[in-house]
Write a structure and sequence with these properties.
The protein contains 9 helices and 9 strands. It is α/β, with parallel strands linked by helices and about 280 residues long. It has one domain: Rossmann fold. Strands 1-2-3-5-4-6-7-8-9 form a 9-stranded mixed sheet, sandwiched between helices. Strand 1 and strand 2 form a beta hairpin. The two termini are about 25 Å apart.
Amino acid sequence: MTIETVSETRCFGGTMGFYRHTSDVNQCDMQFAVFVPPQASNGSVPVVTYLSGLTCTEENFMAKAGAQRYAAELGLILVAPDTSPRGDDVPDDPDGAYDFGLGAGMYVNATREPWSQHYNMYDYVTGELQSAVFDNFPGDRERQGLTGHSMGGHGALTIGLRNPDIYTSLSAFAPICSTLQSPWGQKSLGNYLGDDTATWHDYDASEVARHVSDPSSYGKILVDQGLDDAFLEEQLQPERLEAACAESGVALELRRHEGYDHGYYFIATFIGDHLRHHAALLDA
């Protein structure tokens, strides 16, 4: 796949870059960010992809989380895609709300018009983004981890648990743990997929975790949740993920933190733990 370089700059001995390519899946141009650590000059290294939350782009994580320092120490490529298709022809929330449409792709494949033409972020992450990264950067396709925040935490868990052949390590920050029960999830999936909630189950982290066929396929999943998160009870509901993993036998370490909210200061505090978690499982 051919990509266009938007910008590149030196960072912790490696390279921080932003890139663009034409997406056949989403029928628009897509942008993504990649940090390549200095160790990659000696050969391929593991890749950790971060999926951002509502309203974010490919830039938020790279600018706010302070992750490059840890990735440079551990020898990890970091990848951050945009959160939705974009462009003049891409439909948005008719009311201009932040929680649906542009910036809110929810990492699903939409089946309803007009969304199905462009909103196919599940296939984008598991397919086209793979090609964009591994055709152009020295990443080891056999050593991949997936993490994310909020909407992106939901994406990381559902995509990762459904694709153990791609992702060896999983983690999440304050994920939406049940789109079936979350108002954010109900609005998005109701529009993208329709009213039949049976079609939502593949995009509900707790339902996917509850029905994995081989829990031994996954290393321990690390999830961090702030207890001062304004969205904790209504939107996130980590207790549902905890119960689902206990039922199926998926190993989960759910850490609850007093005083932390939903923002990037919370992510910056624990990003080092998450990248070390991935590095250990990916043999970095």
